[in-house]
Specification:
By secondary structure, the chain is of the alpha+beta class. The chain has two domains: 1-91, Nuclear Transport Factor 2, Chain: A, CATH 3.10.450; 93-167, Archaeosine Trna-guanine Transglycosylase, Chain: A, domain 4 (Roll). Helix content is 23%, strand content 27%. The protein is built from four helices and nine strands, in the order βαββαββαβαβββ. The strands form two sheets. A five-stranded antiparallel β-sheet has the order 1-2-3-4-5. Strands 6-7-8-9 form a four-stranded mixed β-sheet. The chain starts with a strand and ends in a 27-residue tail after the last strand.
């Protein structure tokens, strides 16, 4: 595994970006960058030196939890990171209703006008996903393996051919 430990100065920059984008102010983890600009968070008891020594002895496939991907100027939280950091996320949250939630958990994009960029999706005060908005639509970033594969409920407004504007 190719990995790079994130230095304190770079971690401060990442944390500043997370604070600006999501309101996150604390990352008490050792951050490790792996391929494709992915950041993983390690909270175990091994030091950087011990991890490096272990990597010399054996092949380390993964370490820590996949937390963030860096693309362009965006820091996109991983789906599981939303649960881990839910108590700190205070910015760029878009609330959705039950019918929109039914669409969201099935992998559909949502026709919602909101600010451009990465947004966190909230339903009934629970953070349920992450997406990217182009100001007119939120593109669903829910992992395919986490999506519900059943049909929409019979009482869904979207089953009655109502559009987003009718909600």
């Amino acid at each position: 595994m190719n990995y790079k430990f994130i230095k304190s100065s770079e971690k401060r920059k990442i944390l500043a970006g997370l604070e600006e984008q999501y309101g996150i102010t604390d990352l008490p983890y050792l951050l490790i960058e792996t391929g494709k600009k992915r950041l993983r968070a390690f909270s175990g008891s091994l030091s950087k030196e011990e991890i490096s020594d272990l990597a010399q002895l054996t092949n380390i496939e993964l370490i820590g939890m996949y937390l963030i991907s860096r693309k362009d100027n965006d820091l996109r939280l991983n789906f599981d990171a939303i649960s881990l950091l839910r108590n700190q996320i205070t910015k760029n949250i878009v609330g959705i209703n039950k019918d929109q939630f039914e669409l969201w958990i099935r992998g559909h994009d949502l026709e919602i006008e909101t600010q451009r960029g990465i947004v966190i999706i909230s339903f009934e005060n629970e953070l349920v996903g992450i997406g990217k908005s182009n100001a007119e639509k939120i593109f669903n970033y829910l992992p395919k393996e986490r999506r519900i594969k059943t049909a929409l409920p019979a009482d869904s407004q979207f089953r009655t051919n109502k559009t987003h504007e009718d909600l």
